[in-house]
Amino acid sequence: MKVKMLHNNKGLGLGLRALAVAAPLFAALPMTTVMADDAAPSLTFGAGLRTSFVHTSNEEPIQDANDFNVDNIRLYVNGSVTPYLKFTFNTEYQGSPPNGDNSLQLLDAIARLEINDQFHLWAGRFLAPTDRANLYGVFYNNNTRPFNDGVQDGYPSEFAGRDNGLAYWGQFGIIKVQAGVFDIPETQNDSKVLVAGRIQADFWDPEPGYYLNGTYYGEKNILAVGFAGQTVADQHAWNVDFLGERNFPGVGTFTVEGEYARYDRLGGYGGFDGSYAKSNGFFGLASYLFPQNLGVGKIQLLGKYGQTQFNASSTVNALEYHQRTLELNVNYVIKKFDARVGLFFLNTTLNSGLPDSKQYGVSLSIQI
Q1: All domains of the chain, ordered by start, with CATH?
Q2: Closest by CA position to 54, among listed 46, 64, 45
Q3: pLDDT 10s digits, 214-251
């Protein structure tokens, strides 16, 4: 579960104006559930932890490194005021340097008006409509080391892929639509807002809800294609992504995922030295989950390859270059996303004389 809350009076004002405009439409929407205004409020709590040991082998003169990391610690709060008015609130602890500063950060904070399958209005801080990878994050992904290829989850954000804003989303049969307006660090204190949207088609089993998964471990048969884009002023970013998963009883679960993304002065990973205004690339992933239990869990084999081109540098005489990333996993899936252990190998190669690196390690992810 991922969670959120209202950001400021500006966002609240936008939300109230949107509700006033949308109110006459409620009566025309087909209601899929019966709502009782006097239902008792509810509140649930949860937590998540990702930790790892990583050995990094670098090219000279960069020294090798051995690191025990607390990658993510999250606390989840989720509740309802009425059956159609809900809220979400998540926090994340940022680990030790260089990956964090030992601080507690606001992750998600959402006021959620949810009338039926076709009408949801969210306000606060949350994941804007983006690629599938950003919408499944680090706890509902398939591979052990996501977001290292310079492709996925490169959209701009306030923190950890999240932005402050207002969004509508709805499910219409096999089609899911998400759209919203957001404030990002580059637009704060001026008149510009970021416009974001995503449309997805699920041709086999549906994927209900705002968020997505990188796998369903064979519980669903998935054939999904999504397109997302963001724009502000003359800056743009867009991607197309795909997930296919099929469970064959007695044989196992096969999963394939892919994405192509282009960042044009909006988002992106900034390249090797942070000065690259444009980038584009793709990745492909394939995994196989054995059907038999081995002890308390199942073994999964996974491979992922990504390639990114960084160009349009803002630094004079900086090199344009390619990044190629290969990831291999042997994962032990104990309780789907709530208990997983993974052995991983990550190989990153750069051309134009830039240093390569290799990582080996083990990762643990648990949630309650």
Answers
A1: 9-367 (2.40.160.10)
A2: 64
A3: 999 999 999 999 999 999 998 999 999 999 999 999 99
